[in-house]
Amino acid sequence: MELNSLPDNPYLLLTPGPLSTSKTVKAVMLRDWCTWDDDYNHNIVQEIRGRLVQLASRNPENYTSVLMQGSGSFGVESVIGSAVPADGKLLVIANGAYGTRMVQIAQALKINHLVYALSEVNPPEIGELKRMLDENPDITHLAVVHCETTTGILNPVREVLAEAKSRNIVCILDAMSSFGGIPLDMRDWGADFLISSPNKCIQGVPGFSFIIADKHELAKCEGQARSLSLDLYDQWNTMENGGGKWRFTSPTHVVRAFLQALLELEQEGGVEKRFERYCTNQKTLVSGMRSIGFETLLPDELHSPIITSFRSPSSEKYVFKELYDRLKEKGFVIYPGKVTQGDTFRIGNIGEVYPSDMEMLVQTIGQVKFW
Ligand SMILES: *Cc1c(COP(=O)(O)O)cnc(C)c1O
């Protein structure tokens, strides 16, 4: 494959995913695969499943992984809908759109649940969590988002999960926008189910989600799913016993691209090195933006290196769409804000992007300034 013959993307995606991917990730999609054949099931699917558990813990033997069709939310729904038994009760921590989505999933699936709701700029507090768990001893499961991509806030999930684990509560972690980009260990953290997707920090393309699960907890999900297609146990059982076979049509090209993305994560030096690059991206972006008069929504200590929310300029002449269009013309795609409190916009720090891209972006924002 002559990579130079592949067209360049007209702009860099500075978004929370899908994001800019390497040409090599895109190039491996230029062939077809048979879902019945070992070239696909053994060499690609099983290879990916093995690599995922290695990334998730220093004790990979306790964990297994499942790939699930659909975007990230399908993976979250498959876990919530399969892990919580009919007589279980779920506590959802929600301080943004993705926490709220887990509440909506529980509502849609008619799962008995309780919500610890916070504003988008506040992380959960352990004292309040303890109080809720004391008052509701019937809670069996807890679901929390690691990096709430709504704002870029990093929730103190280690402390949250430790509290839940001390009460034998099963822990579900939405690490969609952090897995592969922020170091974590499921065993040290006490996560029983972790959900993520290829098109975030692993820098693949969208089309499926993946779940890494404690084997013992996953085994308990048999027969519990509230959906046929999103039955986590059955999907796992088929993959595990069928040598990497998916129950229904798998997104073959996207899965192949994901393997390439995993290899490139390894070549970069693993999660630690990628984390360093994202941190440098984010710091470069924030210091540059501050130097031209912008303020971040969150204080630095609450910030993840994944995505950054900026307050919109207060000038009446400022319109997000105009900034968006002008930057797109110059090769950068940014993202609208998603918070209820105040006007913001977001800039993603993840993907095949480097500190020099962040410097160029800040310079370009300075040039296109129209307010
Ligand atoms: C991206 C994301 C999801 C999943 O979103 P989809 O649009 O379904 O892929 C879930 N949680 C978080 C925290 C995310 O960043």
Task: Please explain how this structure is put together.
It comes from Mangrovibacterium diazotrophicum. The chain is α/β, with parallel strands linked by helices and 371 residues long. It folds into two domains: 32-267, Aspartate Aminotransferase, domain 2 (3-Layer(aba) Sandwich); 270-368, Alpha-Beta Complex (Aspartate Aminotransferase, domain 1). The protein contains 13 helices and 14 strands. A hairpin with a 4-residue loop joins β6 (147-148) and β7 (153-154). The radius of gyration is 21 Å and the shape is globular. Residues 16-17, 71-73, 98, 145, 149, 174, 176-177, 197 line the site of pyridoxal-5'-phosphate.
Structural key phrases:
371 residues; alpha/beta; Aspartate Aminotransferase, domain 2; Aspartate Aminotransferase, domain 1; 2 domains; seven-stranded mixed β-sheet; three-stranded antiparallel β-sheet; 13 helices; binds pyridoxal-5'-phosphate
